[in-house]
Amino acid sequence: MTNEAVLDEDTMPLADYLARGGKLTSPNNVPPRYRAELLRLMSSFVDSELAGSAGFADAINWAPGLKERIAASRITLEKVDHAEQVLDLMSDFGTDKALYNKAHSWSARQPRDAQVDAKRQGGDMRLSVFHYPLQGWTDAVVMNFLMGLATVHQLKDLSQTSYQPLGEVFRKILPREQRHMELGLEGLQVLAADEATRDEALSSVAYWLPKVSETFGPAKSERFDRLKQMGLRQTDNETLRAAWQADANQRLIEMKLTR
User: Fold this and answer.
1) Residue 136 falls in which region: left (phi positive, over 0), alpha (psi -120 to 50) or beta
2) Nearest to 147 by CA among 190, 54, 211
3) What angle do CA 47, 51, 54 make, to 5 degrees?
4) Average pLDDT in the chain
5) Are 141 and 63 contacting, i.e. CB atoms less than 8 angstroms apart?
6) The CA-based dihedral angle spanning residues 113, 117, 123, 129, taken in that order and rounded to the nearest 10 degrees
7) How far apart, in whole angstroms, are the C-alpha atoms of residue 71 and residue 77?
8) How far apart are CA 200 and CA 47, in angstroms?
């Protein structure tokens, strides 16, 4: 049976179909447990993009020049667009887009020195890193680069998800998220080359590295096992984290931003 084959529950159990790389294509053939995990996955992405955009909006006015201001504006706008694309899929399952946008204060942040549990905070499904505030341009650039790189690694995995419409959206979004990371990298290279901002960049890297690392989830995760069985995830948390860490470290070493 190919990935495009129509699911026939009389001849093949859903778990076996998904285990063989099968895809589900609409809400009509999505069973309850799969639906719950799929909506949670999509909510986490939407909430993180909305919170990320709201938090990064201040960086537009912190930008030191027009080029940087344009980059910050682009990132702020496109993250909302990415959230809307996934929210459109959630609306197929009955989610009210207008009410969803008003569900939380996306710009709300906890104190800089807070210890935010890596688990989701009630109905707010944003990743824990988006509960921390940004402090100035250098801090925003560092966070955008490190989290942008993590997002690229995560989306490469999610692009293979068994819910085909979501995989298609993630594959469409991925190049733009890649560009967001590259804009952050370009900005960080400038900051790292300037003695006046290098120490601040080093401090910011030390602050954000562990917080971004937490976004990959625990090394041992029963939830990942469930998602993998359903085909919603492919690569385990620790493998993704290690790949991101190696990628980030290589770039930071090149910029001499390691201690």
Assistant:
1) left
2) 211
3) 145
4) 92
5) no
6) 60
7) 10
8) 29
Instruction: For residues 252 and 135, give the distance between their C-alpha atoms in angstroms, rounded to a whole number.
Output: 20
CA distance 59 to 73: 8
The residue type at 174 = L
Cα 168 to its chain centre, rounded Å, is: 16
Phi, psi of 12 (to 5 degrees): -145, 120
pLDDT in tens, 29-59: 899 999 999 999 999 999 999 999 999 999 9
Amino acid type, 237: N
Rounded to two decimals, the pTM is 0.92
The DSSP-derived string for 175-229 is HHHHHHHHHHHHHHHHHHH-HHHHHHHHHHHHHHHHHHHGGG--SS-HHHHHHHH
> Are 146 and 201 contacting, i.e. CB atoms less than 8 angstroms apart?
no
Tell me the one-letter amino acid at 176. Answer: R
Q: Which pLDDT tens digit goes with each residue over 76-105?
A: 999 999 999 999 999 999 999 989 988 889
SS3 81: helix
> Which residues on adjacent β-strands are paired with residue 121?
124
Burial 95-119 (b: 16+ CB within 10 A, else e): beeeebeeebebeebeeeeeebeee
Q: Work out whether the CA dihedral 140, 145, 146, 149 comes out positive or negative.
A: positive
Amino acid at 137: W
Partners of residue 110 on adjacent β-strands:
none
